Amino acid sequence: VLGAQAVCEDAMVTQQLLQEGFHRDLLLQVELGVTRENLGRCTVAARTRLPPGIYVDPYELMSLQRHNFTKALVIPDAVDVEAPEYLAAELVVLLYMTPDPQCSKCFTATLPMHGRYHRPAENNGAALVALKSPEILICCCDNHLSTECWKPSDTKAACLGRSSDPCQWYSVKHKPVNEELMMQIPVGLRQHRFLVCVMTLLATALCSSMILAAACRYGRSS
């Protein structure tokens, strides 16, 4: 049984946003108070809440999971990727973490995220979306670790690489390096609305005319 003193040490959580614009990567790193050797086959995960202004693409996650790049569960699993920010709902993502080869106590994970379209702004051409620090979870289905300092979690998910049956997860007390990240998403300006409408109508009319002309031309030749 692992000593309670080691288990009770606060974890350190660092999160960072990579790239710019609508399509970003969230890089998470967790440093536990215990080494991976003592954890054994326990699974470490981060449960993060995405506000309505941010979403993850389930199909993109499925593709990444097939290539063992990222493993995550999205709640709810049905995500409307076309919905704007003001019609979208909050998402919860359980992101399984992998050992960091450069640190014996560290685990990392990367989550691709996308910004939703926001309402046009008056002056500032960007919207700020706050991303809170995640909750760190551990499940040890087949280990005899001291859990007296861990708070049981209501998370319903299996341990990575174990049975598909849900396991008992525990919430680990941690210290976030930053309480929240601010994601900047480009938005349109209200004063450009008329110009955008006119250009959209012209482009639509031009493309429709080209399709109609092609249909008439090749329809007669057939």
From TrEMBL:
Give the main location. Answer: endoplasmic reticulum
Looking at the UniProt entry, the stretches that span the membrane are 193-216
Q: Name one GO cellular component term.
A: endoplasmic reticulum membrane
Q: Does the keyword NADP apply?
A: no
Could you list this entry's UniProt keywords, alphabetically sorted: Endoplasmic reticulum, Glycoprotein, GPI-anchor biosynthesis, Membrane, Transmembrane, Transmembrane helix
The membrane-topology field of this record reads: Single-pass membrane protein
For this protein, the record's InterPro entries field holds: PIG-X/PBN1, PIGX
Pathway assignment reads: Glycolipid biosynthesis; glycosylphosphatidylinositol-anchor biosynthesis
Q: Which Pfam families match?
A: PIG-X
GO biological processes: GPI anchor biosynthetic process
**Where does the UniProt annotation locate this protein?**
Endoplasmic reticulum membrane
Name the family.
Answer: Belongs to the PIGX family.
PANTHER family, alphabetized: PHOSPHATIDYLINOSITOL-GLYCAN BIOSYNTHESIS CLASS X PROTEIN (PTHR28650)
What is the documented function of this protein?
Answer: Stabilizing subunit of the glycosylphosphatidylinositol-mannosyltransferase I complex which catalyzes the transfer of the first mannose, via an alpha-1,4 bond from a dolichol-phosphate-mannose (Dol-P-Man) to the glucosaminyl acyl phosphatidylinositol (GlcN-(acyl)PI) intermediate to generate alpha-D-Man-(1->4)-alpha-D-GlcN-(1->6)-(1-radyl,2-acyl-sn-glycero-3-phospho)-2-acyl-inositol and participates in the sixth step of the glycosylphosphatidylinositol-anchor biosynthesis. Probably acts by stabilizing the mannosyltransferase PIGM.
Under which name does UniProt file this protein? Phosphatidylinositol-glycan biosynthesis class X protein
- Please name the source species: Nothocercus nigrocapillus
Q: Which gene name does the record give?
A: Pigx
